[in-house]
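To: structure desk
From: M.T.
Subject: fold request, one chain
Message: Could you run this one when you get a chance? Sequence is below, nothing fancy, just the single chain.
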Amino acid sequence: MVDGSGRGRPRSESARAAVLHAVDDLLVEVGYAALTMKGIAERAGVGRQTVYRWWSNKAEVLYEASAIDAQHELSAPTSDDPRRDLTAYLDALVAFLSRSHAGAAYRALLGEAQHDADVAALLASRDILGESAAKVVEAVRKPSGTTLSLEQATALLIGPPFFHILSGRTADDLDTEQLAGQFMRTLNHAGT
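Reply: Done. C-alpha cells follow.
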C-alpha cells in the first residue's frame, strides 16, 4: 500500500501501528507540551521521517490514535433496553474520559484546541464522541417524538459527564444510571 499522498515508499502498516500505539502512552508520560515527533518516532522504534510521511505534526498523530481507540473503547453492546444501553455507553464514556490513555490524548487535544486553530480544525473535522453515541441516542430519540436533532440530543447525553470530568471533578461522583434516566425523561418532554 502506498501512503495517502501517493509519494514515497510503500506504507508499513506495522510501523504505522507502532506509532499509533506509542503516541498516547508517551503523552501520558511526558505531557502534551513535551511530546515531540522525534520522541514519538523513538518510542515507536521508527525513523522520524517515517512519522512525517503520514502525519505533519504531533496533534495529527495523537488525534488519529485517539479516534481509533475511542471507536473501540466507546462501542457499547446494545440490547432491547434503551436505558441499559445508555448506561453502558455512559460507563464507557466516563472510563474513556477519565481512565483511558486515548481519553487523555483527546482531553489534551481539547485543551490545545483552545489556542491553536489547526488543532481546533482537526477536532472539528470529526465528532468522535457524537459518532460513538449515535446508536444509543437514536434508540431513544426517534421513539420519543422529540424535535431535537441527533446532535442536540447527543449533547444532552454526553454533556454532563463530559463537563464533569473536564472541569476536574472525579468520575466517582457520576451516577451513569441516573444520567441515563434523566436523559430519557428530558427527551420524552423536549420539544414535543
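Reply (cont.): The chain is about 70% helix and 0% strand. Let me know if you need anything else for the meeting.
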